[in-house]
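Please go through the protein record below and explain what the tokens say about the fold. Record follows.
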Amino acid sequence: MGEKEFTKDLSPEGDDRLRIKITTKKGMVVEVVVQYESKIKNKWYPLVRYDTSHGFFHRDLLNSKGEEIKKVISIENLKDALTYAEQDLKDRWEWYKEKFKRGLK
């Protein structure tokens, strides 16, 4: 089994990033984690995570209280799921961040 883990910056300041972990077996993607993390008031927070940790592909929205709202995403092919997760977070990270920050107040 192969495993790759890396980060990608989303904002020019470096305060928003994607943490991506891909596990492959015989060249096929078998597990994915794509997590959006933001540095707010000098502390890193996980805000949104797409993963396969419960045996199915889903999104966890995390709030400032540490609660998760889980939503099943019906994409069977994990390579496609990885692309979907990364694109959603690149397109909407600012929206996710504002929503999270409202909960901090």
In short: DSSP finds one helix and six strands in the chain. The mean pLDDT is 94. The longest strand covers residues 28-40.
